[in-house]
Amino acid sequence: MYVPGFGEASPEAKAAKHLHDFFTYVAVRIVSAQLESYNPEAYMELREFLDTNSVSDGDKFCAALMRRSSRHMNLALRILEVRSAYCKNDFEWENLKRLAFKNVDGHNTKLMREYVLETSHVETDPDK
C-alpha cells in the first residue's frame, strides 16, 4: 500500500529507526544494571553521562559517549555490543507483530464501540 507523506523513507524504515533508538535505550538499561552490581564507578560515570545526554537518538548518544574519555569509550562499545545482541538474539519479533495486531484491532474496536454508544442515545423510561 502506498503511504504518502513519508518522503524517501517508508513507514517501515521510520519504524526501524525508532526501534534502533529503542534498542539503544534497552542496551543502556542492561549495561547500567550490569555495572551497578560489579563496577559501581563505571555505573556512576554512565549515570552522570545520562543526566546530561538524551538516549532519544541512539547513535548520537553513543557517539558522544565514545568521545568523552577512554573509559566512556569502553562503555559505549559495550552498549553497541549489547544493542546488537539484543536486537538479533533476544527481541521477540513475532511477539511484536502479534501485539501490534492485537493493539490496533483492540483500540479500533474500543473507539468504534464508544462512538456508537455516544451517538445512539437510546431513551430509557425509568418507570418501566
From TrEMBL:
GO terms for biological process: carbon fixation; photosynthesis; ribulose bisphosphate carboxylase complex assembly. PANTHER family: CHAPERONIN-LIKE RBCX PROTEIN 1, CHLOROPLASTIC. InterPro entries: Chaperonin_RbcX_sf, Chaperonin_RcbX. Gene3D superfamilies: Chaperonin-like RbcX (1.10.1200.210). The keyword Chaperone applies. This is Chaperonin-like RbcX protein. Keywords: Carbon dioxide fixation, Chaperone, Photosynthesis. GO terms for molecular function: protein folding chaperone.
